[in-house]
Specification:
This protein is mainly beta and 128 residues long. The protein has no helices and eleven strands. The protein is globular and about 40 Å long.
Length: 128
Amino acid sequence: QVQLVESGGGLVQSGGSLRLSCAASGYTLDVDYAAIGWFRQAPGKEREEISCISMNDGRTFYVDSAKGRFTISRDSAKNTVYLEMNSLKPEDTGVYYCAADPFTDVAAMFTKTSHAYWGQGTQVTVSS
């Protein structure tokens, strides 16, 4: 059984930083050329993409709003993907989710309308 577990969320002041983790169990992330993505759902809004990474070769993709402030990385030995978030703003508040898609190129992950595996999410709240 595949499980993705996010952690690292919390309450932070505007301008602060957080590092989120997405740990996988029941599935080795760097097998099957998986792409792992981070998503965010703000209150009252639809879930949106942030960034994704290829577990095979580490290639990354960022949406425009995440470029320069967020960094996605992977640790295959720990079967974990991270999202480092800096210069946080109140509009970054939301529930952050990770998702995994086997046999998916990082360039294609955010073109998909559904994803194979999801975590339960971790809350990030940025106060002004």
